[in-house]
Write a structure and sequence with these properties.
The complex is a heterodimer of chains A (about 525) and B (about 260). By secondary structure, chain A is an all-alpha fold. Chain A is built from 23 helices and no strands. Chain B has about 260 residues and is α/β, with parallel strands linked by helices. Helices cover about 40% and strands about 25% of the residues of chain B. In chain B, about 50% of the residues are buried. The chains are: A mainly alpha (about 525), B alpha/beta (about 260).
Chain lengths: ~525, ~260
C-alpha cells in the first residue's frame, strides 16, 4: 500500500478512536452536552451525534489554542523587550509539551483501553499495511497540535533572530519535544489504565492512580502558572540562564527543556557563555537521542496492537463473590467515586479546588493579616471551581445511567449523592483557608465563620446544579448551550450570593459580626430552599 | 380471579415523527412466560423500556404488580428485574462493584445477598471475572452480569430483551431453567426474542407485535387458529400475521435468480 493511501485510509480508524475516546470520557463533552446522556434514552442519539462533531472539530480547536499558547512566551521579543530568547524557547517548549500530554492522554485512552477496531484486519489487507494504517491514525491524534506549535515556534524564532539557523534548530528541538510529549502521554495513559483495568482496584489498591492524579493535577496547574506568571518567569529564567558563572545556569542547561532553550539561544549567539552553551548543546544531543528512542517505543507499541489488542492488561482472576452493603446515598456516592475516578481527565478535577484555593492564598502570602475580602474571594473561587464537579459527575454517568434508571432510585437521592461529593471535595479548600486563618491575625473574629458559610453555599449550589442537569432538556443546539450556561450560572449565583450578602451588610453597617450573620443566614436559607426544591421535584 | 403482574393498556410512543408504539395492549399473568415477537422496529424493545421505567410513553399506561410505572415508578421498579438487549451497565465498574451497588440500592439483606450471589455467579461462571472492569468482559459475560443484577432481588416480574442472544449453551439452559422456576413460584416473565424455537418451547403465551400494536396473542394453537394453518410452525404463523410471507418469498426468489445468473456468467 502506498503511504499516501495509508494516510488517507487512516482517517477512518482515527475518527473512530477520537469518537470512542470522547464518548468514553463523556465528561469531556463541551457546552450543550453536559448531562444529556442522563436525561433520556432518545437523547443518547443526540449525544452520539455531538461526540461525532466534537471528534471532528475538537482537534482543530485545541490545535489553535496550543499554537497560540506556544507563541505567548515570545511576546517579550515581539513587543521589543530586551529579554533573551532562551527563556522564551524553554517556556514555549514546556507549554506545548504540557498541552500535547494533556490532549494526548484524553485521546490516547481509547488506544490503550480498546486498541484499534478489528474491522481493518477483516479486509483483504496485508498485516503490514494494517499496522501502517493504524500507526498513521495514531500520528493523526496529535498532528494538528504538533504542526501548529512547531510552525509557530519556528516562525517566531526565525523572525526574532532574523536568521534561518536558529529556526532550523528550533524545528529540531520542537520535533524532539513533541515526540517525547506524545510518548509520555501514551505511557501515562498506559500506566493509568493498566492500573484501572487491573484487578488491584478491586482490592483497595490504586495508590499509583492517586499519584498519577496528583501529578496530572500539578501538570494542569503548571500550565496555569506558566501563563499567569509568564511575565515574571521569562526574565527570571533568563536572568539565571544568562549568568555564565552561576552553578544554577550550568545545572539548568542540563535539564529538559532548559537545555533545548539554551541550545536554540546559543545558535542565535544571544549570550556568550560558551561553557553553558556547550553543556546545553551536549544535553540537547542527548535529548534528541531520547526523542528517537521514545518515538520508536511509541510507534512500536501502537503498531503492535492492530487487532483490538490493548496495552492495558494484566487482570487477575477473582476467587470469591463477597460484597459489602451500604445505605442508599452512600452506595451512590461510592458508585460515583468509582466511575469518575477511573477517567484520568475527570478524576483530576477532584484535586482542583484545593489547588485553586492554595493559589489564591499563595498570592496573598505576603499579607500580614487576613481581611474579609481575602477570605471571601478565596472561598468563593474554590466554591466556583467545585461547581465543575457536579457537571463532571453527571456527565460521567454516561450511558450507564440507563442502568440506574431501572432501579428504585429517586432523582433526589442521586442529586444528594453527587452534591455530597462536590461539597466534600470543597472541604480541603476550606481546611486550607482555616489553616491560614489560624496562623495569621484576622481583622475580626467573625471572619472565622466565612469558610463555614461557604460550605453551606457550595452544598446548595452543587445540589441545585445537579438537579438542574438531571432535569428536562430543551431541543436545539443553541438552546442546549444556553441551558447549560444558565444551569452553571444558577450554581455560580448560589455560591456568590452569601458573599454578596456579607459585602452588602458590611458596607451598610461596617460591622463584621453582622455581615457574617447575614452571610450564614443567606447560605442557610439557600440550602434549605434547594433541599426543598429537590425533594419536591 | 388472579390479577395480572403486568398490564399494558393503549401504549403509544413517538420518537419525533416516528411512531414506535401505536396503542399496544397486553397482560402478563402470574406463572406466565409471555413472549413478545415482532419484526425489527415493531416496538418490542420500546415496550420493555417503558415497562422498566427507562422512558415515559406518549400515551397509555403500564401497571406492574399493581403500581403504575409512570406515577408510582419507584414501587414499580422495585418489582422488576430488567435485562436490556445490549447490556446497559456501568462499564468502568467491576461486576463486584456493580452488584454491590445493585444490592445496596435494592436493600437486599446481607445473608440472602451472599447466598444468591455466590449461587448465581457460580451458575453463570462469572466468579473469576468479578474484579475485572465490565468494559473488558466479553459480550456474553456482560450479559450474564446483567442477568445476575436482574435476578438478585428475586423480583416478581422479569423483563428480558433478547436475553439469550450472547449466552453460551450452558448459560442459556440455566437461564431457561431459572425462568421456569421463577414462574412456578408465581412470578411473571415478559421477554422478547427473534428465535421462534425458543418462543415456541418456552412461552406460555405469545404476543405478536407489528407496527406498534398487538396483532395476535395466545398460545401456539390459538395463534394457528387465527391464521388458519392447523399444523403451521410459529415462524409460518409469524410471517403470515406480519404480512411478510409473500414478501420474503419474492425476495428469496429474486436473490436466487440473481445468484444463479452471476454463477452462469
Amino acid at each position: 500500500m502506498k503511504p499516501v493511501d495509508a494516510w488517507r485510509l487512516s482517517a477512518i480508524p482515527y475518527s473512530e478512536l477520537a469518537f470512542k475516546s470522547i464518548l468514553q470520557n463523556s465528561s469531556n463533552m463541551w457546552w450543550g452536552s453536559f448531562g444529556r446522556g442522563a436525561s433520556g434514552v432518545s437523547e443518547r442519539e443526540d449525544l452520539v451525534e455531538r461526540a461525532l462533531q466534537i471528534a471532528r472539530f475538537d482537534k482543530l480547536i485545541v490545535a489553535i489554542v496550543v499554537t497560540a499558547a506556544a507563541g505567548v512566551p515570545f511576546l517579550p521579543q515581539i513587543l521589543g523587550g530586551s529579554y533573551g530568547l532562551s527563556a522564551s524557547v524553554t517556556l514555549s517548549l514546556a507549554v506545548s509539551f504540557a498541552f500535547i500530554v494533556l490532549y494526548g492522554v484524553q485521546t490516547l485512552s481509547s488506544f490503550v483501553t480498546g486498541g484499534f477496531s478489528p474491522v481493518l484486519s477483516t479486509l483483504p489487507l496485508k498485516r503490514g499495511d494494517v499496522s501502517l494504517v493504524n500507526l498513521l491514525s495514531f500520528v493523526r491524534t496529535c498532528d494538528f497540535l504538533v504542526v501548529g506549535s512547531l510552525a509557530c515556534q519556528v516562525f517566531l524564532v526565525s523572525d526574532v533572530t532574523g536568521s534561518v539557523v536558529p529556526g532550523l534548530f528550533m524545528l529540531l528541538a520542537g520535533v524532539a519535544n513533541s515526540a517525547i510529549a506524545v510518548g509520555v502521554s501514551l505511557w501515562l495513559s498506559s500506566v493509568f489504565y493498566k492500573d484501572v483495568l487491573g484487578s488491584k482496584r478491586g482490592r483497595g489498591g490504586g495508590v499509583l492512580r492517586l499519584v498519577l492524579l496528583l501529578g496530572w493535577g500539578i501538570a494542569v496547574l503548571g500550565i496555569g502558572v506558566l501563563f499567569a506568571a509568564a511575565g515574571y518567569l521569562i526574565p527570571l529564567v533568563q536572568g539565571v540562564l544568562a549568568n555564565p558563572n552561576a552553578l544554577t545556569s550550568s545545572i539548568l542547561s542540563l535539564i529538559y527543556p532548559f537545555s533545548l532553550g539554551v541550545g536554540v539561544g546559543a545558535t542565535a549567539h544571544l549570550f556568550a557563555s560558551s561553557g553553558v552553551e556547550k553543556t546545553a548543546l551536549a544535553a540537547t544531543a542527548g535529548y534528541l537521542l531520547v526523542a528517537v528512542v521514545v518515538s520508536r517505543w511509541s510507534m512500536g507499541s501502537v503498531a503492535s496492537f492492530p487487532e483490538g489488542a490493548s496495552m492495558a492488561t494484566g487482570i487477575e482472576r477473582a476467587h470469591d463473590t463477597s460484597t459489602a452493603l451500604h445505605g442508599l446515598v452512600t452506595a451512590y456516592v461510592i458508585k460515583d467515586l468509582r466511575t469518575a475516578s477511573v477517567n484520568l481527565p475527570s478524576a483530576f478535577l477532584f484535586t482542583l479546588p484545593a489547588f485553586e484555593t492554595l493559589l489564591v492564598l499563595l498570592n496573598r502570602a505576603a499579607l500580614p493579616s487576613l481581611r474579609a475580602s481575602t477570605l471571601l474571594v478565596s472561598t468563593a473561587l474554590g466554591g466556583l471551581v467545585s461547581l465543575i464537579l457536579p457537571l463532571v459527575l453527571v456527565s460521567s454517568e454516561g450511558t450507564g445511567f440507563d442502568f440506574a434508571k431501572t432501579m428504585p432510585l429517586r432523582i433526589s437521592t442521586i442529586a444528594f449523592a453527587k452534591a455530597l461529593i462536590a461539597t466534600a471535595v470543597f472541604l480541603p479548600a476550606v481546611a486550607v483557608v482555616c489553616l491560614e486563618s489560624s496562623l495569621k491575625p484576622l481583622t475580626s473574629p467573625a471572619l472565622v465563620s466565612i469558610p463555614f458559610a461557604s460550605i453551606l453555599a457550595v452544598a446548595a449550589a452543587s445540589l441545585l446544579e445537579v438537579r438542574l442537569f438531571l432535569g428536562f432538556t430543551s431541543a436545539g443546539r443553541i438552546r442546549f448551550i444556553l441551558q447549560d450556561l444558565s444551569r452553571m450560572a444558577a450554581g455560580a449565583g448560589t455560591v456568590l450570593l452569601p458573599a454578596i450578602a456579607y459585602t452588602v451588610a458590611y458596607l451598610l453597617k461596617f460591622d463584621h459580626t453582622l455581615a457574617a450573620g447575614a452571610m450564614i443566614s443567606v447560605a442557610s436559607i439557600e440550602l434549605a430552599a434547594v433541599v426543598e426544591f429537590v425533594h419536591r421535584s | 380471579m388472579v390479577d395480572s403482574l403486568v398490564e399494558i393498556d393503549g401504549l403509544s410512543m413517538r420518537y419525533g415523527s416516528a411512531r414506535a408504539l401505536n396503542g399496544l395492549d397486553l397482560k402478563v399473568m402470574p406463572g406466565e412466560i409471555y413472549g413478545l415477537l415482532g419484526p425489527n422496529g415493531a416496538g418490542k424493545t420500546t415496550t420493555l423500556k417503558i415497562t422498566a421505567g427507562l422512558i415515559e410513553p406518549t400515551a397509555g399506561s403500564v401497571v406492574v404488580s399493581g403500581f403504575d410505572a409512570t406515577t408510582e415508578s419507584l414501587q414499580a421498579k422495585a418489582q422488576i428485574g430488567y435485562v436490556a438487549e445490549i447490556p446497559i451497565l456501568y462499564e468502568s465498574l467491576s461486576p463486584r462493584e456493580l452488584l454491590e451497588f445493585v444490592a445496596s440500592v435494592r436493600r437486599i439483606d446481607k445473608d440472602s445477598l451472599h447466598r444468591r450471589l455466590s449461587q448465581l455467579a457460580e451458575a453463570f461462571e462469572v466468579t473469576s471475572a468479578f474484579d475485572s472492569p465490565i468494559a473488558t468482559l466479553s459480550m456474553g459475560t456482560k450479559q450474564k452480569v446483567a442477568i445476575i443484577a436482574a435476578l438478585l432481588h428475586q423480583p416478581p416480574v422479569l423483563l428480558l430483551d433478547e436475553p439469550l442472544n450472547s449466552l453460551d449453551a450452558r448459560s442459556s439452559r440455566i437461564l431457561r431453567e431459572l425462568l421456569s422456576l421463577h414462574v412456578q413460584r408465581g412470578g411473571a416473565v415478559l421477554f422478547s426474542t427473534h428465535v421462534m424455537e425458543i418462543a415456541q418451547k418456552l412461552c406460555s403465551r405469545i404476543g405478536i407485535i407489528f407496527e406498534g400494536k398487538t396483532v395476535a396473542e395466545g398460545n401456539l394453537d390459538q395463534l394457528r387458529a387465527q391464521t388458519g394453518g392447523k399444523d403451521a410452525t410459529l415462524e409460518e404463523v409469524f410471517m403470515k400475521l406480519t404480512n411478510e410471507s409473500s414478501e420474503v418469498e419474492n425476495i428469496v426468489k429474486t436473490l436466487r435468480e440473481s445468484f444463479f445468473n452471476d454463477e452462469a456468467r
